[in-house]
Dirigent protein (Cicer arietinum), 180 residues
Amino acid sequence: MAQQFSTPIKIMSFTILILIIATNMANSQTPPNQTTLVFYLQDIGKGLNATVSPVIGINGRVWSYNTFGTIFVVDDPVMVSPSPFSTQIGRAQGVITVTSLDGANVNILLSIVFNNMQYSGSTLEIQGTSRQRDNSRELSIVGGTGRFRFARGFAVFETVSFDAPNVHSIIRLTITLALP
């Protein structure tokens, strides 16, 4: 005949199980394979050397960063420092779409395509909503290829400088990754 456990023993067993799970979760908050990379994007929106350009928008409206429905393509150089003369290690290529009616948010799909240093041939995929009026914007790293295969993490975009007459931004890109 099977012995039945009383309710207090079941509750105590369940409590111990929850404590074990919570302890394991607390100990695994920072993965041992976490790494942080810092790069700089040179974002130029005007002139012959423009690296970001509107390609389509709503008919009858000015296509701009603040106009709902405007879609931009991006091919920014990725540099090791904020200087436009520093070493280029890749390109940030993708699409930006103004997705909020008030123009405050854009949806970003961006691939960091590495072509220099130890990451050559690898990519990182960034996706998410960017509150473009904030100085610091956090987006998701949803994957990668090559050295970054199965990568997960987040990317913080921070505007370092903005030259309004030339529509030239320097953006610090801090990437925090967990790799398998």
About this structure: The chain has one helix and nine strands. The chain has one domain: 30-178.
